[in-house]
Design brief:
6-stranded mixed beta barrel; 5 helices; Barwin-like endoglucanases; alpha/beta
Length: 203
């Protein structure tokens, strides 16, 4: 009887000691294989949402176009000698289907998209002219652009010993040419600028 009582007390004590151990094991991570997302939330708390994107300040669309044209310029020949159309080509079709006329302002370039607007500056005279590219050429390697007779005469390259010109893209097909002050900075209006308003061939 005494031995049975002692044995019962020992068993009850063992159960009392073992109960917390089982409870601890039940709540222990090692007992259950929780998925990674749940484990991450236990270790680091709920996921923190990313900060809201900071709105970029408004950028001038005209200046963005200048940057676009600068990137385009490296893929085309935009400086060199200028040639001009033969008188016999008056009234012939250009590459985009328009008619070429000697007295209209137009130009041919070998690679620029047809319909692009360019500003051409003659080194010999310093004169500038804006016109639209509506034809392909010139096909002689030493020339960078082929001008209508009216354009060549305005720039002075039809008589100048130095026919070198620089070419600047100021609009792609379907775009209006950039304002002059965006390209060259503010300046006074000159009489020469009136010639830049002459329509390109076919207009």
């Amino acid at each position: 009887m005494h031995k049975n009582l002692i044995f019962g007390v020992l068993i009850a004590g063992a159960l009392a000691v073992a109960q917390p151990a089982r409870a601890q094991a039940f709540l222990c991570e090692e007992t259950f294989n929780l998925d990674d997302a749940t484990m991450q939330s236990y270790r680091f708390g709920p996921p923190v949402p990313p900060p809201a994107p900071v709105a970029e300040p408004d950028r001038d669309p005209l200046k963005l176009r200048v940057l676009k044209y600068a990137a385009l310029a490296v893929r085309h020949r935009l400086s060199g000698l200028a040639s001009y159309y033969s008188t016999s080509l008056n009234g012939t079709l250009t590459a985009n289907g328009e008619r070429y006329y000697n007295k209209k302002m137009s130009a041919a370039h070998l690679t620029l998209p047809l319909g692009s607007w360019v500003e051409i500056t003659a080194r010999a005279t310093g004169r500038k002219l804006r016109l639209r590219v509506n034809d392909r050429g010139p096909y002689v390697n030493k020339f960078a652009i082929d001008l209508s007779q009216a354009a060549a005469r305005f720039l002075g390259v039809d008589v100048a010993d130095d026919r070198f010109v620089s070419i600047r893209v100021i609009a792609l097909p379907g775009e209006d040419p950039l304002p002059d002050d965006v390209i060259n900075g503010p300046k006074a209006t000159t009489i020469e600028e009136s010639a830049t308003l002459a329509p390109a061939a076919g207009n």
